[in-house]
Amino acid sequence: MLQYITNDTDLYNIAEEVQMAIDGGCRWVQLRMKNATDDEVREVAAEIIPMCQENDVFLIIDDRVELVNELRVSGVHLGKEDMDPLEARELLGPHAIIGITANTADDIIRYKGKDIDYVGLGPVHFTTTKKRLAPELGYEGVREVVARVREAGVEFPIVAIGGLKLDDVKPLMEAGVNGIAVSGDIVNAPEPSIRTAEFIERLNNYNS
Question: Rounded to whole angstroms, how far apart are CA atoms 155 and 57?
Answer without folding.
Answer: 24
